[in-house]
Design goal:
single chain, alpha/beta, 13 helices, 50% helix, 5 strands, five-stranded mixed β-sheet, globular, Protein-Tyrosine Phosphatase, Chain A
Length: 245
Amino acid sequence: MSRTHTLTTTEDRTLVWDGCLNVRDLGGLRTTDGTRTAHRAIVRADNLDRLTAEGWDALLDHGIRTVVDLRNIEEYKPLLPLPDGVELIRVPLDELAGSAWWETYGRLDGTPLALRPYLDHCAHAAAELVTTIAGARPGGLVVHCGAGRDRTGLAALLLLALVGVEPSEIVADYLLSAPNVRPLYGMLGLPDQHLRIDAVLAEAGTTAEAALHATLDGFDPAGYLLAAGVDPADLAAVRARLLPS
């Protein structure tokens, strides 16, 4: 893929929802059979609690009718109430991981190194996410967490892999979030997490890009989800949502 094409695709997918910093449509990504994912089907985003009235209008104008919130319930602190016509569904990925996972892998949180251990040990959570999306009402759907990078990145990786998006496209999409969320730390008065993330990656002798490719290498999303108990009809429903008819 040429540099020009990559930039054009990214610009087309980036959405401006006032109050959010890291919003992208998952449409327009190339699959291994040469098709592209559908626009206005699934959007990935950061914290929708910060959306202004204008931001919610933009979300509605994009056709969103379902919000899948990947955060724990105590993180939910909306500035404005959910608009009429939008359904909120919770799939709290951190909570679903359980304490044993956090004790073993918590130090990797925030880095791509956490993705494969999550998939390996939390298939029940991945299954709940995919089943939820499969059963969502007609219309666009947005999946989000706090920064739109880690939990949302995992969700996007899983969904895009399921519909056969090229690994290089999945990796590139994940990496777009890092510069987008950097201003968030200053807004919240927090230290820049990228310093810790870089240190964890360096200690493991890898990079974010390499860790993401390693996560996808040999990963069979359909087989994985079927083994986790997802109904084949639900896999088909997600594919129908994210691929053009």
